[in-house]
Amino acid sequence: MPTDCKPNTYMSPSENTTCHEAWYTVRLILSAEPGSDLEPMNGHEYKLAVDTGDGSFWFYAKDFVQCIKLNIPAEFLDDMEDSIVCDWSDATAEFKQKYALRAVIPASTAPIRELRSLDYYDGGSLNVARWPASRACDIPFVAPMWDWVNGKPGYMGDYKLRFARVLAMAVDKETAAQGNDGNLGMGVPGYRAPWQNTSSADRVTFFDILNEGVGLVSKPMCLFMRLLAPNGHRLAHANQRVQSFVYYGVGSPCGYLRPGDEKIMTPDCTAPLYIFPDLLNGNSYRWWSLQLLSLTLLEPLNANPNYATLEPTDWLQRRIPIKEANDGTGTLNGIRVMFDSGSMSSVLPQWILRIIWTQWFHMQAEQYPNTSAQWLYHHRDFSKHDILFEFRDCFGKVELVRCNAQEFLTSPWAAPGPQGGTMACLVQSATETSIDLLDEPWILGLNFFWAAMLRLDATHRGDRPIPGQSTPYIQFAPQRIVRNGQKVAGPWDLELHAHLPPRMQATLRGQPELLV
Fold first, then answer.
1. Could you tell me the CA-to-CA distances from 389 to 114, 222, 349 in Å, in that order?
2. Which SUPFAM superfamilies does the protein's record reference (predicted)?
């Protein structure tokens, strides 16, 4: 079987989600060798959250305990730890039930190779341990795949993904309350924090697992990610091939075949945009990040606007330039943003959100939510609107990404409280200064992924990409197809190809563009 038939990782949103639980998970089936300490758990399913904002993966350890972060400035800690651990005696009955049912992994009897703490931007804090990558300690899973012939999710019984045993021994309460069984980091390949002195052979990232595998995946350092907004009604009535997925392989895995057509239409991809090195360490890459120069809401001025142009007779542009220079040149400096599928919302400077609140949402300025925990909301329909993201890459190339505004500015959830309306996945940082420092980018979260599909390519097969030698890049494709200025397909029309993967489809239909 050609390699393109197998490298698809099936993924689905968590069921019964709220706005704080909309995790997209890869489902892995444990398949340990005879005699392994994990053999009694063979066949158990583990759901790992797909997270492009983190490079590491981890599973919950059996009997994991609570981690409480101490709110003490680093200069006062001296030799003290910055967190304490305790049991779950203060947890609710609902949490304890979830704790008892969670799929976990026992610690190995082998010596621990390394113990580290792992902190997330949202305040999450974990103590994680890793064991050496070896057959005695590894966690083998049957690899999930997309069955092209039958058009449904499946698993490969003859191929295993061998994860190093990396376990969360202590976890903060908010992280532990989430519904997944661990985290699957898909940050830039080569970034292996919090682990030190590790290489691809240690298999501490998912990219390392693929790179050190048996060679089934032809491009293990390149993935194509497509996420659909949680919508049970649309999903129930959609074709089985309409899926959220992560794809490792050659070409475009999804498109739209209009009835009667012989050629598959695929969304138009942008040119490669090369990401920036780490803000603190310019010799390495950490985030899938670009510079955001502006945001523009396109409001239609008639019932049938041209979605391929910016004609003033069709569109009113409400543009938000970001950090425009004051020297009269019109130069935009922008803000650094990362693309984070593990973030429930996009986190942007408050001044940008206030403009969106008043000029885009048509809300009163004095009604703006003043707490970081509160998402924005509105009462508008953006189904006819477009949104333009203006990005600049590390080489100075500027690219416009045009998408449906509805997916970015709305959500499946109603706003709580008497005001009603729809929640928007937009939130300000806990403090304007904490995330505005030079060591952390702002965040384009799940709502951006609902509007656009992303190809993330590390451009190398070595231990890590080196600035100046191999620069990872991003390509964007809107979750729609526009032909002759009109939308002919939206997110719920784009399907994984029927019966054959991209390589075979390209040959069968005489469409070499499917391999791009």
1. 41, 23, 16
2. Acid proteases
As a whole number of angstroms, the distance between CA 37 and CA 21 comes to 32
* Residue of 173, 166, 177, 176 lying closest to 84 (CA atoms): 173
Return the SS3 of 408: helix
Q: What mean pLDDT, rounded, does the chain reach?
A: 87
What region, left, alpha or beta, does residue 510 occupy, with left being phi > 0 and alpha being psi -120 to 50 degrees? left
d(CA 447, CA 425): 6
Is the pLDDT confidence value at 408 over 90?
Answer: yes
3 state DSSP class of 216: coil
Q: 194: cis peptide before it, omega within 30°?
A: yes
Closest to 353 measured CA to CA, from 332, 333, 336, 374? 374
* Torsions phi, psi for 202 (to 5 deg): -80, -15
**Contact indicator for 140, 160 with CB cutoff of 8 Å:** yes
State which H helix or E strand residue 208 sits in: helix 206-211
Pairing verdict, β 289-300 and 315-321: antiparallel
Query: Which residues in 70-108 belong to E strands, given as ranges?
Result: 83-86
Cα–Cα nearest to 46, from 64, 63, 58, 34: 58
Question: What per-residue confidence (pLDDT) applies to 72?
Answer: 62
**Does the pLDDT of residue 300 top 80, yes or no?**
yes
Highest mean pLDDT among 10-19, 175-184, 250-259, 400-409: 400-409
Delineate the domains of the chain, giving CATH numbers in brackets.
Answer: 3-232 (2.40.70.10), 268-479 (2.40.70.10)
Q: Could you give the count of Cα atoms lying within 13 Å of 297 in the half-sphere of its Cβ? A: 24
How far, in Å, CA of 154 to CA of 136, rounded? Answer: 27
Paired tokens of 146: 């997309």
In sequence order, the 6+-apart residues with CB closer than 8 A to the CB of 126 are 58, 67, 117, 118, 119, 168, 170, 171, 172, 175
Count CB atoms within 10 A of the CB of residue 199: 14
Alpha-carbon distance of 358 to 378, in angstroms, equals 10
What does the pLDDT look like over 434-488, one tens digit per residue? 444 556 899 999 999 999 999 999 987 777 777 777 899 999 999 999 999 999 9
Q: How far apart are CA 448 and CA 409, in angstroms?
A: 9
Nearest to 349 by CA among 440, 432, 423, 444: 432
Q: Is 311 exposed, middle or buried (0-12, 13-18, 19+ CB in 10 A)?
A: exposed
The pair of structure tokens assigned to 256 is 């739209």
Q: How confident is the model at residue 377 (pLDDT cuts 50, 70, 90)?
A: very high
Residue 324's pLDDT band, with cuts at 50, 70 and 90, is low
Question: Which helix (H) or strand (E) covers residue 147, if one does?
Answer: strand 139-147
Give the SS3 label for residue 366. Answer: helix
- SS3 label, residue 367: helix
Q: Identify the residue whose tokens are 């949490």.
A: 95
Contact 69, 125 (CB under 8 A): yes
